[in-house]
Amino acid sequence: MGVEGVEVVVVVREFDSKKDVVGVEDVERRCEVGPSGKLSLFTDLLCDPICRVRHSPAFIMLVAEMGEEKEIVGMIRGCIKTVTCGKKFTRNAKTNAETFKPVPVYTKLAYILGLRVSPSHRRMGIGLKLVRRMEEWFRENGAEYSYMATDNDNLASVKLFTDKCGYVKFRTPSILVNPVFAHRVRLSDRVTVIQLDPSDAEVLYRRRFSTTEFFPRDIDSVLNNKLSLGTFLAVPRGTYSVQNFPGSDRFLDHPPESWAVLSVWNSKDVFTLEIRGASRVKRALAKTTRIVDRAFPWLQLPSVPELFRPFGLHFLYGLGGEGPRAVNLVKALCGYAHNLAKACGCGVVATEVSSSEPLRLGIPHWKKLSCAEDLWCIKKLGEDYCDGSVGDWTKSPPGWSIFVDPREV
Asked: Which of these, 397, 396, 319, 314, lies nearest to 353 by C-alpha position?
């Protein structure tokens, strides 16, 4: 309500990059005021408010404005892609007998992120209005499900989506973050790391991971994106080398007993992060660890990078592998990715995996920087949509793994 009971009209419209950037950045700054005396994580979108969705197949950003001056008081971002929601088994066309080859079941999935409402305009229904208008756009573009991710402790966001918007709690993956030290990580001499070209990487992912939940059908677009720094395969030394690697098809036909793979995404060129609210004592201790690490790199001492001013990150995605040594091979790949991030001047490397992912044991991370349970909530947008092999995806049990799309980090 406005002055003397006059209702203030809130208009939700599409973001205009020519006139809305300043207003959007102002709302972002006001929303990122951290609690007094506590550490807070701030994000700089590098003057591109749509940067976190623009690499998706379809995306949009909406803003809410009100008053005669058309003040921007909120915004929301969304994107749509086609992903795996389950799997089914093929049947022999002649005998109608089941074979045991699983194939992916795809669905058109929408993703909501970056919902912001100015602190001075909350509890006015603006967030709900933004979500509902975004869902209209999702439906207009054929999306069958919508989901969002939030911190488990963000009670206001969880309440909005589950109590008012009809979402249900769905998955609780873990965000694992590791600092980039001043020294390079030593890699095991028992492991060979091979960089795959995008076509080989696509073959490997489609053959072995296409039935993984949330696997993007346009994985080729992800792997060929300029932000993807490469896909790396780890094998026991003496099995394959860079020179004799036969290509992914032949490799998968005759794989070694153990192998692992991951890809690296350059989020540093999309946004930067900054930790604020640290005391002088914490800053001094962190600086001391860096000084000692640089002076004695051979000691391999863990050091805290400069996280109290803007820093970039590399995101590890498409992590997977097989065999009894797969965990150790994943650890080697993470070390390789750490060194790549160091060479690029990043402050941290991060990944997100299912809470039940067996390979997470090989992912180095600091507990204080990580999030044990990120909450994903999901909603079925169309009541008439249902695949016989999967049923209602919102009611399906979690699998061992998920595929986290780096375009939505």
From this structure: 319
The domain made up of 3-173+373-408 has a fold known as: Aminopeptidase (3.40.630)
Asked if residue 399 lies in contact with residue 354, where contact means CB atoms within 8 angstroms, the answer is yes
Q: Rounded to 5 degrees, what are φ and ψ at 358?
A: -65, -30
CATH of domain 176-369: 3.40.630
Strands 98-117 and 145-151, bridge-based pairing: parallel
Nearest to 247 by CA among 204, 285, 277: 204
Query: Distance between CA atoms of 176 and 364, rounded to whole angstroms?
Result: 8
With beta carbons less than 8 A apart as the criterion, state whether 12 and 130 touch: yes
Q: Are strands 191-196 and 174-179 parallel, antiparallel or unpaired?
A: unpaired
3-state class of 35 per DSSP? coil
Q: Of 378, 365, 377, 319, which Cα lies nearest the Cα of 338?
A: 365
pLDDT in tens, 177-201: 999 999 999 999 999 999 999 999 9
* Angle at 117 (CA atoms; ends 115, 122), nearest 5 degrees: 135
> Pairing relation of β-strands 228-236 and 191-196?
antiparallel
In this predicted model, what pLDDT tens digit does every residue of 364-390 receive, in sequence order?
A: 999 989 998 899 999 999 876 555 566
Amino acid at 83: V
pTM over 0.90, yes/no: yes
Q: Where are the domains positioned within the chain?
A: 3-173+373-408, 176-369
Q: Which residue positions in the chain have pLDDT lower than 70?
A: 1-8, 33-38, 91-99, 384-390
CA distance 117 to 130: 9
Long-range contacts of the stretch 116-123 (C-beta < 8 A, 24+): 116/27, 116/28, 116/31, 116/74, 116/75, 116/76, 117/27, 117/31, 117/64, 117/73, 117/74, 118/27, 118/30, 118/31, 118/73, 118/74, 119/30, 119/31, 119/33, 120/30, 120/73, 121/66, 121/73, 121/74
The CA-atom distances, in angstroms, between 14 and each of 21, 73, 148 are: 12, 14, 20
Which tokens sit at 215? 């696997």
Q: 298 phi and psi, to 5 degrees?
A: -70, -15
Q: Which two tokens stand for residue 95?
A: 């005998």
Cα(269)–Cα(115) distance, rounded to whole angstroms? Answer: 22
Nearest to 375 by CA among 147, 83, 78: 147
CA separation for the pair 285, 263 (Å, rounded): 33
Count of residues in the chain:
409
